[in-house]
Every structure is written in C-alpha cells, then in structure tokens.
Write a structure and sequence with these properties.
heterodimer; A: alpha+beta; six-stranded antiparallel sheet; 13% strand; flat; B: mainly alpha; 7 helices; rod-shaped
C-alpha cells in the first residue's frame, strides 16, 4: 500500500514534469501567461508528490518492508533506525529518487520568487528545471524503481515486479543485505545530501543562463538573479567535499583524506568550474566583460554535475564510491551530450549580441588577474577530466587497462595550485580597470616583505624542502595580504571615530561579498597549510608488535597493550586493539584501532585510532593479529603534521561563504526600490 | 565475490609457482616499510583505486607478501614493478607506463595548459591594443559638441 502510494507520487510527478515542459513551451509560443502559470503550478506540484514518494520509501525502510527489493538490498534488522532512514540515499534507486526530490524542491523554490521583472525568463527556467527533473524521474521509473517488489512463483523462482504477477506470491526475505559498511558513518549520512544539494542547486543558474540565451537578453540580469543560488550551490558542494574528505580520513584507513578517486574528482570538477564562475561573474557585473565565458562556465558546471552523478551512479568507473552498477549509463551519456550540444548551439547563436564594447586596459588590472585565475581553475579541470576519462579511453581504444592514480594528479596540478595561491595574494591589491606595476608594487611590498621574513624564520627552523618552503611562504603572503586588506579598510572607518572592532565589524557587514571572499581565502590558506603538512612531512611505519613492544615514528611511539574480539549488536565482528601513545617517552593517551567485519556483506573495515592535535595527528591502523591469543599484532602508524588545519580551514571557508551569501541590507533596499518602480508604487522615504 | 575468489586463486597459484627461483635461496627479510614503499605505487585489479599498501583484503595481503618474497630474493624496486606488470598487466601501476597511447596522458595536460596560457595572453594583449573607446567617441559629432561645451564651461 505504502509502496503503491510512493509509486503513484513518482509517476504523477513524472507526468506533471512532462506536462510542465510542454505547457511552458506552448505558453511562450502562444504568448499566453495562463499556460506559463499552468506550467509553474505543475512545477510546484512535483515537490509534494515527490515528497510523498520519498517519505513512502523512508517509511518502508524504517518498517523493514523486505518485500520491496530496494529495502531488502540496503537495510537489515540489525541496523539502527537512523541508518535505515538514511539508506534512502544508500543505494542506486533511492539516491536517484532523492536527487529528483531535491531537484523538485529547488524548482518549486525558484517558482516562488517574484517574477515580475523576469517574465520572459520564466517559461525557459521551468523548461530546464522540469526537463532535468523528468530525465531523472524517467531513470527512476523505468530503470531503477525503488518500489519494485519481490515475488515467488510456484517453482520457487524469485523475480521482481511492481505488482503481483499471475500465480506468484509475495516473497519476503528473513533479513536484508544491510547497508554498505562504508556508508555506516555519520559523515556519510550528511555527505551525500550536501553533495546532491550542491549538484542540484547549480541547475538553477544554468536554467537562468539558458533563459537569457533563448530570450536574447545580453545584460547581466541572469547573473544578478542567480548570484545567491550560485553561492548556495557552491556552499553545499564545498561542504559535501569537506565532509567526504573527513569520512575518507575516518573510515577508509588510507592515512589521508583525499585519494584522487574518480568519484571524488567527479564532485570536484563542478566545484572547480563553479569557483571560476563565482570569480568571473564579478568581472561581468563590474566591467561588462566575459559574457560568453560566464555562460560557458555555467553550461560546463551543469553538465559536470550530471557527469558527476553519471560517474557515481552508472558504475562506469570502478571505485570505492561506485557502489551500484546499472544500465542507465548510456542514457546519462545521451542526456549530457544533448544538453551540452543545445546549450553550445544557443551560445553560438547569441555570440555577436554578447560581445562587449568595454576594453581591458591593463594587464595587471583585477579583471586581467581574474582571467588568469579562471585559466588556472580550468587548467586543473582539464587535468582532472583527462585523468578520469583516460583509463576509459585507453580500454576502448587500445584494449589496455591502466590506472591513473594520485601521482598524476598531484604532480600535474601542484604548480597550478601554487600559482592560484600567488594570485590570491596579488588580485585583492590590484584595482579594477587601471593598475600598473608601480601601483601594485606600492600595495604589495609590505606584505611581501613580511612573508619573506616568515619564510626566513621557517628556513632557520629547519624547513629545508623547497616545495614546502615555497608553499608555506605563499600561505604567509596571502594571510598577510588579506589581513592588510582588513586592516586598511578598518583604519579608513576608524577615521569616522569608530573603534577598531566596530570598524572591522561594519566593514564586513557593509561589503559582505568582498570580505566574505577574503575570509574564504583565509580558509583556503589554512587548508593549504594542512595539505603541505601531510604531503611533505607525513611519516609512516609498520611493524609487528608483541604485547608491551613499541613502534616509533617521528617523536611519537605506540605500545601494544591488548586485543579483544567481540560481536556487536549491529552484526559486526569487532577486533579492537588497545595501544598507548607516547610523545618523547611521555604517555599521551590510549587509542583503539580496530577492524570491523560485517557478517552480512562479508566485508572488512579498518577503523583507525586517532590522536589529533593542531600540530600533529597520530593515526594508527590495526593491520593483522595473532588469532585467539592476540599475543602479537601488526600496526601501521602515520604521523600526519598539521592535518587538523584542513578541517579548521574548511570551517573558516564555510563561514566565509555564509558571510558572502548573507543578504545585504543595502542590496535588499535596491531590490525593493526596483520592485516598487516595477509596480508603479511611490518609493518609501529612507 | 567470484572475481575476488578467482584473484585469490590466481595469487595463490602465482605465489606458489611464479615467484623467482632466487626467492627460494633466502636473503634478508625486508621490513614492512620497505614492502609498503613499493606497495604504495601498486593497485590490485579487484580493489580499484585503493593502493596496495592500505588495502585490507586478503588478496592484497597476498600481494604484499609476494613483494616481500621478491625483495628477499634480491629484486630491486623497479624489478618488482616489472614483475607485477608482467604478471597482471600495466593497470597494477599507479600511473600508466610511458609509451604509445599512454604518452597522451603525459603530454596533453602541459600542451593544453600551454595552449590555454597562450590564448589568455593573446586575448589580454589584443584587448589592450584595441583602440580606446574614448578616442572613438571623440570622432562623433555629438561627443565633439559635448567636449566643446565642457571646454567652454571650464573657461
């Protein structure tokens, strides 16, 4: 019954999405606001219908309705309630339904905005949102239906069907297969929704961009309308990537947080184009330049979002993330090709109209440096894209299977990241339009001198590796430039009689976008410090220890104390070691590295014991042990310097994004005035 | 699971039969760190994208043992890699071996970055060389009239 309700919601939403597309097109063609309003209503309705569908599935998951094939494949009796509920995105069919539900939520939210100034955009925004939604719903309905049930024939054969086939009886397994052990982690509960939110919300700027292209509006209205949507999308994508990294660090037992896995890269690629876009839209807003480029970036971001979902969901690339494999790959590929071709065709049609009369006057101007920033982001994207598709291309074209591992990505992108850090320290000091070497030099020399001093101190403190020294010098330089910018701005306000703290607060509050951006830069620098720490100074060692023996790495040592084996309530066979951590011979704390063996899926998981400080993480893995007695065990120990700075940087990064995205009172007043003008109402006295 | 079982069977067989004769002569036992330094750059075909040094499966543990055997037999790091490539194909390596089609992955990124850099440079310099908008406006009658009026006001 519940499954039928869910299927009904799904099917009706799909039909409404198709109807909405047709009504929006017809409404535009006939210039009929009624048809467009009907398409809008259809868009709004998809949300409650898909909510009903998603809730039906969640109910079935919690209720352990094992007759539903999806429920049997991702839950089991031993799973706690919260994991049963979050199993909604634990498998292929459920996660596609979840994607669709989020898409309908965003499409409905965008329909609720005030459209009076953008009536011409509305049918096209509806069309793009609903076409994307219809595609995903078609995948769910026809290929990965989460409401399909298990049936058993007289001969004992079990098959799947939505409704009871003739002569068959419902088949209810005693227990389900349970959720993939990799997904049973708090980070994994939040990581996929954040990533999907980021993916889905990028559809909105794309929809407005297409609307601008179709209607031929060459101004920057579409950018102004979608600025906050883009920042929100970027925020969620960044959060998704950060949480995914933390999950990898805590669960995968690699000793690190980023493995350059193809599916990690699939989520990273739209983030790269999204970041480039966020920088380059400022040039269009301020100077009216890069109209083509901004449209191209948003088109690329949209298709990379679909590509990312395709990689994760189709199983085309085998990786720890590509849990599910199905026949939806070719359809995804077709959808990406069609949307890309149509978008590029529209862009080329409007190419002339989008040409800018404004000129770039200085190679050192902020717009020129932003262009360089975009070039670097897109270069990293190209390297990542090549790395992801090269194994596929090799297999298809030469029949040879190859691996493109972290070594490729790290060595190819390292100089580009360094150049981006340098730009982060130069661009904020350059002026729009006219900036010369002399004016820039005058602004730069103080922070530059300060950063050289910091680098000298680091050198004297024994940091000798050129790469690490260069990276840390760049980090110091960016921090000093950013602090200098805050200090300069606050000082200017202090002239009005404000104290420094108030001046700083008001400085940020009055220009949230700019100073939010600077806070993001500080977050990036903190992340960079963490990455430099682990990349250049990580130490690892492995050894077999008898009870009481020690293993040393850097100035830390671990001592094997004991090992216990027990069965957990959720069906794991746990082997947990107790080790003491010492620093320079002084006891620090106990750690409990363990191996969990999931009986249902016959899958082992290595969970590290972690001692974390701002300076260093001690990361201990239990590799193997002597059965029964536990008299000896093999441990792998990593000493990861500065890795906590990655998480701190991530936090600062998110705070900066929130500051930048927070509605600006002055901007709201401008919008209000514009609306009042549009309605023909008198403006309120300020 | 079938693939995993097959791989384990292959590994056991290869471990028994394919390890070089030199291994049987005995030598200094390599430390786990020496084994991991090599395993870090190897991938087994089943546990895609998980380096051999951190993979927890039984099959990967067998591979690590095989590396230890080879090192004990006097193999150098490069010889160990060559041995694994010969046995299991180039996909075991962390990066494609340079040569043939694989050159593309090494040459394309720098080529594309250089080409992109050149295009950015050309766009920037072309923009800068463009005749100034101000100069264009001054040629129009209307702009000239405004300029004249402004001059008249100033005087």
């Amino acid at each position: 019954m519940i499954a039928d309700l869910g299927f009904f919601g799904l099917l009706t939403a799909f039909l409404l999405a198709l109807y909405g597309c047709a009504a929006a097109l017809y409404g535009h063609w006939q210039r009929s606001p009624r048809w467009v309003a009907s398409a809008r209503a259809a868009t709004l309705l998809t949300f409650p219908l898909l909510t009903l569908s998603a809730l039906s599935l969640v109910y079935s998951l919690i209720d352990l309705d094992f007759q539903i094939e999806y429920v049997a494949s991702v839950t089991s009796r031993s799973m706690p309630l919260y994991l049963r509920a979050t199993a909604l995105w634990g498998g292929q069919a459920g996660s596609l339904l979840f994607w669709s539900w989020l898409m309908s939520a965003f499409a409905a939210a965008v329909m609720l905005r005030d459209w009076r100034r953008d009536r011409d955009f509305q049918p096209w925004v509806i069309l793009v949102c609903l076409a994307t939604l219809a595609f995903f719903l078609a995948m769910v309905l026809f290929f990965e239906n989460p409401f399909v049930r298990l049936w058993q024939g007289i001969t004992g054969t079990v098959w799947t069907a939505l409704w009871q086939p003739g002569g068959a009886l419902p088949y209810i397994p005693r227990d389900g297969n349970g959720l993939n052990p990799l997904l049973r982690h708090p980070g994994m509960i939040i990581h996929p929704p954040m990533l999907y939110l980021g993916f889905v919300s990028f559809v909105i700027p794309f929809a407005f961009a297409i609307a601008a292209l179709v209607t031929g509006r060459s101004d920057d209205r579409w950018i102004r309308v979608t600025r906050r949507w883009t920042l929100v999308a970027w925020l969620f994508l960044s959060l998704g990537l950060l949480l995914g990294s933390r999950w990898a660090y805590d669960v995968l037992g690699w000793g690190g947080y980023w493995g350059w896995d193809p599916v990690e890269i699939a989520a990273f690629m739209p983030w790269l184009t999204g970041t480039a876009f966020l920088h380059s839209v400022m040039i269009q807003e301020k100077r009216g330049l890069f109209k083509h480029w901004n449209l191209l970036l948003v088109i690329l971001t949209y298709d990379l979002v679909i590509f990312g979902t395709f990689l994760t969901r189709s199983g085309v690339l085998s990786s720890v993330h590509a849990f599910a494999q199905s026949a939806i790959g070719p359809l995804f590929f077709l959808f990406i090709s069609v949307t890309l071709a149509v978008s590029l065709a529209l862009l080329s049609r409007r190419w002339q109209a989008l040409k800018s009369d404004v000129e770039m006057t200085s190679l050192l101007s902020r717009e020129a440096l932003f262009l360089l920033n975009n070039f670097l982001f897109v270069s990293i994207l190209v390297i990542c894209f090549l790395g992801v598709i090269f194994p596929l291309a090799s297999e298809i074209l030469t029949g040879q299977q190859i691996t493109v591992g972290p070594i490729y990505y790290e060595s190819a992108t390292r100089p580009l990241w360094a150049a981006l850090l340098l730009l982060m320290g130069v661009a904020p000091l350059s002026a729009w339009r006219a900036s010369t070497a002399r004016t820039l030099g005058r602004a730069i020399w103080k922070p530059l001198l300060g950063s050289v001093l910091v680098a000298a101190i680091m050198l004297l403190n024994g940091i000798r590796q050129p790469g690490a020294l260069l990276g840390l010098w760049l980090c110091a330089y960016v921090v000093l430039v950013t602090s200098y910018e805050f200090w300069r701005g606050a000082q200017a306000r202090q002239a009005k009689g404000e104290n420094f703290a108030l001046a700083l607060w008001r400085l940020v509050a009055r220009n949230r976008r700019r100073y939010g951006g600077y806070i993001i830069h500080v977050g990036v620098v903190l992340i960079a410090i963490g990455i430099i720490g682990i990349e250049f100074f990580q130490q690892e060692t492995q050894g077999r220890l008898a009870i009481g023996e020690q293993l040393q790495a850097s100035d830390y040592a671990i001592e094997y104390v004991s090992l216990a084996e027990f069965q957990s309530a959720d069906g794991r066979l746990v082997d947990r070691a107790v080790v003491n951590v010492y620093r320079d011979g002084v006891f620090v704390r106990e750690l409990y590295p363990r191996q969990d063996f999931y009986m249902e899926s016959q899958q082992p998981m290595t969970i590290p014991g972690l001692h974390s400080t701002w300076e260093t993480d001690v990361y201990v893995l239990l590799v193997s042990w002597e059965p029964i007695t536990g008299g000896s065990a093999t441990f792998k120990m990593y000493v990861n310097p500065l890795v906590s700075w990655v998480w701190l940087g991530g936090f600062v990064f998110i705070v900066g994004t929130l500051v930048a995205a927070w509605p600006n009172r002055e901007m709201q007043a401008v919008e209000l005035q514009a609306r009042s003008r549009a309605r023909g109402l008198p403006l309120k006295a300020r | 699971m079938k693939r995993l079982a097959l791989l384990i069977a292959l590994l056991v067989l290869s471990g028994a039969g394919a390890t070089p004769a030199a291994a049987q002569e005995g030598g200094p036992t390599p430390s786990p760190d020496e084994v991991n330094a090599i395993a870090k750059n190897l991938y087994c075909p089943v546990c895609a994208n998980v380096p051999l040094d951190v993979c927890g499966t039984a099959a990967c543990a067998q591979w690590r043992q095989q590396i230890a055997d080879l090192l004990a037999a006097g193999y150098s790091q490069q010889q160990v890699y060559d041995y694994f490539v010969q046995q299991y194909g180039p996909s075991v390596l962390a990066a494609p071996p340079p040569g043939g089609f694989n050159w593309l992955i090494y040459l394309l990124p720098p080529a594309i970055v250089l080409l992109g850099g050149f295009l950015v440079w050309r766009s920037l310099t072309a923009w800068k060389r463009k005749p100034r908008l101000k100069a264009k406006l001054c040629n129009t009658k209307f702009a000239k009239k405004i300029e004249d009026e402004l001059k008249a006001r100033r005087s």
